[in-house]
Amino acid sequence: MKIFFPILMILVFSSCKNDGKNRVEKKIFIVSKFNIDIEKHHQKTLAKNPELSKIKEIKLYDYPKGGINFIFLKDGSIFYHQEELLTFVCGNGLENLKPINRTLSEDSLHQIQLREIYNFLKEKSADKELKNNWARLHHLSFSFENDTIKNFDIHKLLKDIDSLGYQSYNVRRIAPFESEALKITKNKKTSKLFCSLCFTLQSF
After folding, report:
1. Which tens digits make up the pLDDT trace of 19-33?
2. What beta strand segments (E) does the chain contain?
């Protein structure tokens, strides 16, 4: 019995350690892997439905965009901005269109916490402006500064928003135009903080 108890404790500890490791691995989100898996699924769908390959994808913008665009930074901060989406495009010669280079004003950026996103999107889901002509919610966009995400549970986030009816979204790395807008935003915040500090020091 004295020998069995230490062995049992080792087995229990090992099991708990492995469970913890598995939970961490499930929480880790890799942007490139996610998109590779999406592309594999897309190719399988095309193989089963060859007629779908005749429908050409038209890229209207240099980077995908959503009705609401979230930006996740490596320092743990999250921003979002909203954009108007085209519900449909009709006419000939669309395949000759050149993608529009997107721009972003720093004034359009709003900071948000991860825990606030679900309720924010739940409230927005009732907004008519976020729906297309068929009363379907516009798709969302999630961009990330890093390829591997460890400090946010993105798997859970995507699962939660799917339950709200947002069943269309894209996941990608952060774009240069987003980085530029964020840089200006952060510089403005730093300047305001510095001015506030100077004013405080002058008050003494």
Report:
1. 555 554 568 999 999
2. 29-30, 68-72, 78-82, 110-112, 140-144, 148-149, 169-173
